[in-house]
């Protein structure tokens, strides 16, 4: 049986993605000087999802006719992200695309950008407060509910389920937890949830899975709020415990995840992962760049359906473009329209 090491190519892939980001920046810096500069602030670049999103966003920004400054990496530190954004503005950024490290901590950062007259588009994660030109993300409560529906149906509404939670300091972590839990309570009340925090850390997710898998012999399913961070470790834990079986085989532990990385697509095709709710990463990049350019041009938007299959909704004092997420199983895991099949690891 194969060894799931967090993909043997994981480190090499992230390094390659970082190289691609650097090449994209170099290309952007060679652009005409009259093009507006945009700064991209990443929360971290230690997993494929974030590395691919940074790369695709910089590319989309350049294709939209803007110049890119070197992307910053907060390494999971909200204070560093605040400094990063200030440095981007000092370096001449006229617009920002930010993926927040912390939904609360990003609020004063947005206030600072607003004071400087620099519009900020937030992608993937929403702020607790503070003014953004637009928020571009998926309906993460809906994502959690879709994962719940898949788990509940597979288990016939009964059994023990491990939920590996994302960082509850982020809207995505809270929403994916709330969406999943509310659905379980409403539709599958006989399911027993075992919740474990991970803070989006691979080592914490693996350790939590190890503890629960070894102490819960009747575990029926595992819900992972990020396959980018959690899937490889979970597969290794199940293999070491002698509990890794393919979909449809006896005693199979049902696995559901969120993100839809290239690795997750591969594991669905291999038969180890049952379902992934794929985030629209490619659309985060595309429409993050779109709204950043629109903000520079003074364009405004209103709540309601868009021309790209989503809906703009009110989110506090901001508007948020809620992009659709896709449920992926073996039947559609090779769909070339999925971002996980467009970006190769």
From TrEMBL:
It is found in: Cell envelope. Keywords: Signal. Residues 39-299 form the Periplasmic binding protein domain. Residues 1-32 form the signal peptide. One of its GO terms (molecular function) is carbohydrate binding. SUPFAM superfamilies: Periplasmic binding protein-like I. GO terms for cellular component: cell envelope. Belongs to the bacterial solute-binding protein 2 family. This is ABC transporter substrate-binding protein. The lineage of its organism: Bacteria, Pseudomonadati, Pseudomonadota, Alphaproteobacteria, Hyphomicrobiales.
